Amino acid sequence: MVSLGCPKNLVDSERILTKLRADGYQMSPDYAGADVVLVNTCGFLDSAKEESLEAIGEAIAENGRVIVTGCMGKEAEVIRARFPQVLAVTGAHQYEQVVGAVHDAAPVPPSAYLDLVPERDLKLTPRHYSYLKISEGCNHRCSFCIIPALRGDLVSRRPDAILREAEKLVAAGTRELLVISQDTSAYGLDLRHASYPLKGGGEVRADMTDLARNLGQLGAWVRLHYVYPYPHVDKVIPLMAEGLVLPYLDIPFQHASPSVLRAMKRPANDAKVLDRIRNWRAVAPDITIRSTFVVGFPGETEADFDYLMDWLDEAQLDRVGAFRFEPVAGAAANDLPGHVPEEIKEERYARLMEKTAAISAAKLQAKIGRTLDVIIDAVDDEGGATGRSKADAPEIDGEVHLRDTQDLAPGDIVRVHIEDADEHDLFGAVAD
What we know:
By secondary structure, this protein is α/β, with parallel strands linked by helices. Helix content is 32%, strand content 20%. The strands form six sheets. A five-stranded mixed β-barrel has the order 15-16-17-19-18. The chain has a four-stranded parallel sheet with strand order 1-2-3-4, sandwiched between helices. α1 crosses α4 and α11 (302-315) packs parallel to α12 (342-365).
């Protein structure tokens, strides 16, 4: 399995592999040992599509028997034009079609012992953290995005089913649940926020706040990703102050200039976001806010970019990523006037990253001398370890580097005294 793209794709890959494992297949660690190769593609940007096509080409060169799935499956004709030898092409979260294609390509011989379904899903992440997908699709029509065309409109999972999955993950060793979707704030809207019975009694609403509260009672860290800044997000912040949910919000603001947000067709673009951020910090002072921004969007003027830079000075976001605008086939933004030259995109990108790195460095410097909870991700042979604080999501945020560790293992949560910091990472030792 070659799994590309976002954590939502990773969850799809895990579900496909779990079903194949139940059907008697084993996972090969390399191309040479595989009867068939699955490539789960990303199609969000043209650069991601090209990466997917390169991965398909590599799989064909190394193995020859390739099944393609994922977001780029919507463009089967493009894939087949370049690689006519692929065995099958399916779209995003079409699990049964993928499994059926594998059965056709590499049938499993009949066996009396293939009824042994694994007790839990196969995982592509370490044992101690798991992505928990609560919905598929999105109801928004942002002008730069083709996700609704790839994955459809919002379809929320039942909250009782999500909680059952979370309980199994925690029982199997998960210490951190990373809640993901295309729009976590919209969770349950299509279910009309109905209530569903819980196995042990009581009910749970199909609502972000109620779901987060129930997840927080399972004993693992709960981290919320892809949250849009709707007013009802305010109800989640007290859960952070209570310790039920990590004080962390991943909010894709994308820009701050009102004119650019209108052109992007972003939801909640008239919200007084700065005021709400101040209110969130008043309720949960340790809250970490992560976001991403697009620079060089069509029509973005120097005044628009200066507005964004001034906004960042006020917002003082903890973690920031940025993208240079890239046209995506099928996106409405491609037809907007005023495309920004590449050299100006690069210059604005560099300025934004320089500013946000300085903000990050100052915030991390302020943590020197504090003692923080840290979840261990890796332990080396020289007595050191790498982990993450509550402010750090895996792979996209910073890390905490520990010296002189003893008897630690991945998944341990320890108290760490912070001794130093740089622009992105913290350094310290286990507290006495």
